[in-house]
Amino acid sequence: MSVLQRSVVCALSLSIACSPLSAQPSAAPSMGSSSSAELSPALERKLGEAIMVQGRRDPEYIGDPDMSQYLENMGRKLGAFAPGGAPQIEVFGVRNPEINAFAMPGGFIGVNTGLIVGSHSESEVAGVVAHEIAHVTQRHIARGLTQQRQSGHIALASIAAALLAALIPGSGQAAMGIAVFGQAAAIDRQLGFSREAEQEADRNGIEMLRKAGYDPNGMAIMFGRLAKASSLNEGRGGGAYASTHPLSLQRMSDMQNRIRQYGVAGAQNEDEYWFIRAKSRVLQALDPRALRQAHEQLEDEARAPTQREGPPPSVARRAAAWYGVSLAALARQDPAAASKALDQAQGLMGNSPYIELQRVDIELARRQVASALGLAQAAHKRWPQRRSFVLKIAQSQQMLGRDAEAVTFLKAQLKRWPTQEPELYKMLAISQDRLGDRVDSRQTMATYYEKLGALPSAFTQLQQARTISTDFYVQSQIDVRMRELSSRIAEDRKLLERFRS
What we know:
501 residues; mainly alpha; Serine Threonine Protein Phosphatase 5, Tetratricopeptide repeat; 3 domains; four-stranded mixed β-sheet; 65% helix; flat
């Protein structure tokens, strides 16, 4: 809704695509085949993937690996208990201070930083995510889109037209693909879930919360706060989530009665929640004034021994606040102040991957790259499941000119995470190119674009690799990949033509 509630119409600069290793995605992913014009679960997923190809280019999209892993884990944890089973859920962050969240076709759920910052517990954030997952699993979005098509609404047809334009490799019409979020905004405004659909999402969301170990009260508390914000900000653009998910007294009463039946004790916040909340506050501060305000708020929270309401802040919350102060200082290009604040955080809570990652970033800001590499490697051994440290190791190796090491390291990591972090393919391609492996670098870059769903960009990289190579065997392998991509692009065009009509 935040991203989907405005028309985002941008121009895709074709000059950017001139560099083989910096060309930008310009297409939808493979939509697969369909036996009917109805929005089946598989087709709904592919439509969501198509929108996300362009969504990842939105300045508000957060690609931060820590934020991504945190929200991915929350979505996976909740989705595992969805009634009837959940499709693939992808929860991502949106850099926007508005208290909002939204679900797109196919299980893509955006969470505004404003929602995280405005929460007081992890269960409150999980409550909103669970509600959105329920909209997906109960097929409310798919039904609404199908009804729109049958009633003559043109939003879905407009999306299909925009994505068709993006499927033309090298065409100036690829710029139209960026407008897809504007069309998605029109769909979102038209859906308007019914009262029954909202109550069904509440019921299923509460069940997911309970089974996943969150406090079900989190949903009622957060929705009550959202409704209050909507009332206070009426006419001033506030309370976006409550305005699109109206909270009636009957709905609130039903929610509270269901929660009381469980009699579940409040769940404890994970330490990671406080660090993500502090990071969110800094990420959404897009200008010097907002950054200064975030710094002051975080410092007050870090220093406050007690709160006006509720229990005293936990050690993790205060440590996370100091971590946020450090993030804000580094964003202002003051590594000395960032280091001083981080020392405060470490004094309270020494065993945190967030603190160690910030230490790496401070060293990089000081241009102490060898030191940063050592810190990242040590942290990677302690927290091997953290993709952020993998990225920092490779970045440091490349900055030190150790591309051969970077290639070996990145290939090993891609065996562990072949799909979760496409950026690893891009980094590998850069090091391969520096080492003179021009054919391999372009094939790797093609894989990067393919993982993003930008099939024409992937095809272009393979064309370049095919032209550069003089090895018949390698050329034959590339030909096979190019034929597969051509077939997938043709299938996409055929399917989208049906939805455009």
